[in-house]
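<instruction>
Derive structure tokens from the sequence

<record> Sequence and structure tokens follow
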Amino acid sequence: MRVSIVICTWNRAALLRETLSCFERLDVPPALDWEVIVVDNNSSDNTSSVLDGFSSRLPLRRAFEAVPGKSRAANLAVRMATGDLLLWTDDDVRVSAGWLRAYADAAVAHPDASWLGGPVEPWFASEPPTWIARNIASLWEPYALVDHGASDGPLHQQAIVGANFGLRAAVAREFPFNERIGPTGHAALRGEETELLGRLRRAGLHGWWVGDARVKHYISAERLTYKYIAHWYTGLGVGIARSNGTFDGARLFGYPRWALRQYAWLQARVAAGSTRRDVAWVRNVRSAGILRGYLAEARESPARQDSHERG
């Protein structure tokens, strides 16, 4: 088997260095052939110098994508990859020593699994506020965390995240990432992996959970705020609207009336629960953020109908 490890990076040279250092400590099965593909998505820091430093230490292949967009960079990596299995991770992740072996073993043992996923644990840059620590299980989306247990098993509707994600190369070529969504520089257009998995499931494909393929995802201090979480969910709302389309109907100042009413109600609930900051409050923050992103996209694309209806 040949495995292609893929990272799309933008202006995270210091964290990228740590991620690549973890690859030097991987437990690589003797019969496994592997490569590391890093796509620089137009970084302005010293990413290129970091990659120079690993060119003789890892089976590294590198590419440059000048047009901003993680999904665009990911599709370039798919076209470059020579592996039978693509393993996706991020430029701010620490992979465990057994990560590669766990995925390789699972891919061989379950050849009918089109995608694979593993646990992502938090790696906090600083102590999180009490309300974030208390609600971390409900904040798995903005912090790209997931854990379905230590035991392997089939993935049905369970979520996985792009920081720890395996995909058969043939499937990746047949189902490219949607380049209308996904992070683009500072813009937060989230949900690219979720949208892809939705297409895979609708095509009748299924996945497999690999409990030993563990990674830790860096969470910077500036992300430990309400502002960041609300912004992240707004980006998710834009991504959902771009994937599913927006509905026409009665509008006020260019916005769907029903969505404005719902958004006002949700914002009132967020304000009312701001002192408690419990699980119910987090759910309202999520719903309000998603609807805020939907409203922004609906105003930009007032005539666009649901994509399934168009298809």
Summary: Residues 279-300 form the longest helix (22 residues).
